[in-house]
What we know:
Helix content is 67%, strand content 0%. It has one domain (6-52, 64-232): Up-down Bundle (Fumarate Reductase Cytochrome B subunit). It has eleven helices and no strands. By secondary structure, it is mainly α. α4 (63-79) crosses α10 and α6 packs across α8 (166-186).
Amino acid sequence: MLATNPFAAISAFVSPAAMQAYVVLMALLVVAGTIFDIVHKGSARYFFANWRRTKGKAKEIGGGEMLSIAARTAVVDVLASGEFCGIRRRIAHLLTMYGFVIYLFATAVMVLRYPTPATPTPDAWPHLWWLGAVMVLVGGYWFWFFIRVDVAAEGSSPFRVMRADLFVLSLLASVTLGVIWAWAQARGSAGSLIWFALYIGATTVLFGSVPWSKFAHMFFKPAAAFEKRVANANGTRANLPPPADKPEQFSSARTAPRHY
């Protein structure tokens, strides 16, 4: 099961061309949804307006320093999720983020490059697909049931759902149903096509709901982190108070709130 391309196995029932067109459509939905979100919320307009407003007051930053800021943003804020001060939340986020990237990339390769049994899939791609799926499920369910602020700090039920939860819930639903479908198909279950239909439905919600979910945040956050580091370097945030979670400035680190 772990070495079988589930998308090639289902090509007897679903046209490979249809699966490939679906992958391309989902990618287009992400691009269109992100652009719509940027225009609707005015995110890009805000950043550029703020940049122009502070340009005359800012200290000049050389090209080398700007490159260093960009590198630190990529390594610390993006690759290592340095924005999270809690180790549990950071680990859960990293598991989900890297798992999703691995899972998504392996899916695209298996559907676009090895869509049928006639083009044998190297074992590495199904292995990566399963690895990414497990990472998403571990990180996502750990966050949902044990780390969410309203659950851990406010004592709310983990089954309380809000609009802001659309992204994480659709992601968990998509990956969970995908794993169940691949397992059922490998066992030759008669209901595997039903699980496949549910998997496609949840995946469509995940990629089609970008304008209303937090999906687009993965593109906004690096830009916001970069702008924040530039503001620190050129002195334009000099009049703002320092962060409240710096132990060297306030004698003690911020502790996470807990519900008792």
